[in-house]
# Entry
Amino acid sequence: MAKLAVSITSGKNNTDKATVGFVVANAAVASGQETVIFLNVEGAYLASEGYANDIHEEGFAPLQQLISQFIEAGGTIWVCSPCYKKRGLEENQLINGATIVGGAKLVEFLSQGAACITY
# Structure
């Protein structure tokens, strides 16, 4: 099984990038790849309960639906700890299925041969 990390740096500041990142991640996990989404910079907001509820890019499924599908399919969501804290977000606001991690966790995954794409 191949490994893929999808780094999402955008939230409501660029809903197209946030959406397409989850579309690609869903395609990867559906094809049997071990897939991790790393939410960082503005993308950290996507891990906050309710934040993605009103994001719906034309031509795509609503972002909340894409997030749910990814988690249900066995995908992993990691949230950059300093990025989340910098934005004043608390761990009790996390969506189900998301985990706050440090950068070392992503580096470890990448060192195991994971490819990485960033949105």
Remarks:
- The helical segments are 15-30, 63-72, 81-86, 103-111.
